[in-house]
Backbone:
């Protein structure tokens, strides 16, 4: 007898449960959606908490950076502009994001620990290391999905790191030239006095409470070297705030919308899509990681992702610009703007005049790296050895604090 019995009229026989509706082959069952009102309320709540934590982190890091100024200025790992490049690069690896490291650089500059050049190079280093998570995600995706194209998923990480270096290394030179030429001296962007006053009123008591919990702290003391601990505390808090922001932002589900993306074949639409994705997510790591499953399943080819990666590498500096304005330091804003302008100029020049040779070159490098495990491990070793050499440059160059 079949699983379901029917009566003479064709209905379900009494006492026999109806079988669940058949699922169309290849169709993924959809989970029940939450009421729209609850979804919106949840996103608003997450955004407000994330914003609160972001500002709190900046305030804590600002106090922590001022406390360590006298102790580490001109010493390891801040010997010179090359060492800070390596420090920002390596730090982005370990926190799997560049934005928190860039915020630390701005706070150290605000506290007097870093020079203008060191701040600029640490910011650049944070961008060079930010795409490491794409390579890591590609590797994990390839291990979990052995039936998918391993070269495409891991290759997307290699591509992201290669393109970032190709853009940011010349961009770093141009950007610092813009900064030293004084072309941005008239830019005095910062949060208004009313906003800064509101920050002191709203976040000041919490900052004071956390500060009071630090062993050895005395409000009446002239100096507070023990407050250095606020810098890593602020770094942890800002990482949490970015994590909460991920729940607020639209889901970047490329697999779901891949069938609608015939225009993904064109460079300029992909460039602007990359700009938009990094602006919305406030993280190049999130904006680029979505490319891993797309490439592995064949929805987007690595060549088609090149302009997307270039666009994301420009607007990823948006949150760093906001952090500089909250600190109330116009020079910090100028540093971020100089970097963004230079990277944008280099990127547009590449896309307009050198797109084909650059695409062929980076794809050839990509194919060569993922061709064998030995080459892949050599590439990964280079990713760590190079910034480590920069980080330890103080041993053979010496401290340069000007």
Residues:
């Amino acid at each position: 007898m079949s699983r379901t019995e029917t009566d003479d009229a064709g209905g379900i026989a009494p006492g026999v449960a109806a079988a669940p509706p058949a699922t169309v082959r290849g169709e993924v069952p959809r989970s029940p959606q939450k009421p729209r009102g609850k979804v919106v309320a949840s996103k608003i709540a997450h955004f407000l908490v994330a914003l609160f934590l972001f500002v709190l982190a900046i305030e804590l890091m600002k106090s922590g950076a001022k406390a360590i100024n006298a102790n580490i200025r001109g010493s390891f790992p801040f010997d010179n502009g090359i060492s800070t490049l390596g420090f920002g690069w390596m730090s982005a690896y370990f926190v799997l994001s560049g934005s928190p490291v860039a915020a630390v650089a701005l706070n150290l500059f605000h506290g007097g620990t870093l020079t203008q050049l060191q701040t600029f190079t640490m910011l650049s280093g944070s961008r060079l290391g930010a795409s490491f998570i794409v390579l890591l995600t590609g590797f994990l995706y390839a291990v979990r999905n052995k039936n998918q194209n391993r070269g495409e998923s891991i290759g997307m990480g290699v591509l992201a790191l290669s393109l970032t270096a190709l853009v940011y290394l010349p961009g770093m030179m141009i950007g610092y030239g813009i900064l030293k030429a004084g072309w941005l001296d008239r830019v005095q962007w910062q949060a208004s006095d009313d906003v800064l006053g509101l920050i002191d009123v709203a976040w000041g008591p919490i900052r004071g409470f956390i500060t009071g919990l630090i062993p050895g702290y005395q409000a009446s003391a002239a100096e507070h070297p023990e407050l250095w601990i606020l810098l890593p505390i602020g770094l942890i808090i800002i990482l949490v705030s970015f994590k909460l922001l991920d729940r607020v932002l639209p889901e970047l589900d490329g697999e779901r919308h891949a069938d609608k993306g015939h225009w993904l074949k064109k460079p300029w639409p992909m460039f602007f899509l990359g700009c938009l994705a990094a602006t919305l997510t406030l993280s190049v790591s999130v904006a680029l990681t979505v490319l891993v499953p797309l490439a592995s399943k064949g929805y987007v080819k690595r060549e088609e992702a090149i302009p997307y990666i270039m666009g994301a590498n420009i607007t990823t500096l948006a949150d760093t610009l906001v952090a500089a304005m909250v600190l109330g330091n116009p020079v910090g804003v100028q540093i971020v703007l100089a970097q963004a302008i230079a990277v944008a100029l280099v990127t547009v020049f590449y896309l307009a005049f050198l797109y084909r040779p650059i695409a062929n070159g980076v794809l050839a490098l990509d194919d060569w790296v993922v061709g064998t495990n030995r080459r892949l491990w050599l590439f990964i070793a280079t990713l760590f050895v190079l910034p480590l050499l920069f980080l330890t440059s103080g041993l053979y160059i010496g401290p340069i604090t000007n």
Observations:
- The chain has one domain: 39-251+261-395.
